[in-house]
Amino acid sequence: MTAPSNPPSGAGADALADGVLAGQRRALARAITLVESTRADHQQAAGEMLARLLPHAGKSVRVGISGVPGVGKSTFIEALGLHLIAKGHKVAVLAVDPSSSLSGGSILGDKTRMERLSVSPQAFIRPSPAAGSLGGVAAHTRESVLICEAAGFDVVIVETVGVGQSEIAVAGMTDVFVLLQLPNAGDDLQAIKKGIVELADLIVYNKVDLDPEAAELAMGQMRNSLGMLRSAHAAWRPPVLGVSALRGEGMETFWQTVERYVAVMTEGVRQQAAVAGGALAEKRRRQALDWMWTLIEDGLKARFRADPAVAAALPALAAEVEAGRAAPTAAANALLQLFRGA
Ligand code: GDP
Known about the structure:
Layout: H1 12-21, H2 25-36, H3 40-53, E1 61-67, H4 73-86, E2 91-96, H5 100-103, H6 115-118, E3 123-125, H7 134-150, E4 155-161, H8 165-171, E5 176-181, H9 187-193, E6 202-205, H10 212-228, E7 240-242, H11 251-271, H12 278-306, H13 308-322, H14 328-338
Parallel strand pairs: 1-4, 1-5, 2-3, 2-4, 5-6, 6-7
The structure holds guanosine-5'-diphosphate.
């Protein structure tokens, strides 16, 4: 990747934050490299930088996009991005792809993808961090969303490949979660079985140019299936749209639907005066709290495993549990009592 490998530490974090706020692309790229670094001094600097950026973040529409490989995610994001830039938006594209550490490549890693979008000064495209657990990759991407917002991007797209857990992570960091589907018979059932449809705020059938009739049929089936599922929000039933990313068709309808979602989720609940800022603000508050707890749980687990007394006793106790000679409850209690939490 083009990302510079030397993020700053200490006082450099302030200068970096200033660069991000001034919209400097190099500062933006370095800021993301900083949050992705696992070095303790970098983490410290990243925390200071994020604290400075946070008051300037939050002003974008965060769009999650998922779908199986080959559905047309990058074609769609490029077409949408170019459409939005023509309307005056600034578009950042990030990715969550925990599989990249296994396969060696990453989504967005291939330079030929989104060729036209990537050369636009109004766009910023960043591949998925190459290493780490899903939790780690997702945490970095969440922070990268905030950094892009502070740099003035008013649309942030987070892409993920359709492999299960990563969709949940992306739905948990975006305002509107979009499932891209292929107009093939039976594909709706696959997606429903995997539970991804329930996460979706919007379902988009791509490649409708190939066989418009088959696409209509697949979309009708999906609408029927959706009718039987419970919607996540009473005020919003996920619409089903058809597009041709390759031809750039359907992008305006798509974006209008996203804007309608944001309007419904901001105004609909406010009218009932139920939640300050509407359902969308509530969604973001819940996402931020969930994120905090995920980090606490990850941190506690790492400290637990690193605790000398726990580390000394764990292998033998785990073997006892595996062999059925110790009850999991008793073993867990014994290990928790050994944990000093330092
Ligand atoms: P991704 O793996 O989900 O990112 O999919 P890509 O964007 O790389 O697209 C996979 C293939 O589908 C490419 O050959 C694209 O040109 C093609 N494709 C994408 N969108 C469309 C479309 O709307 N219509 C047609 N006919 N082909 C498309």
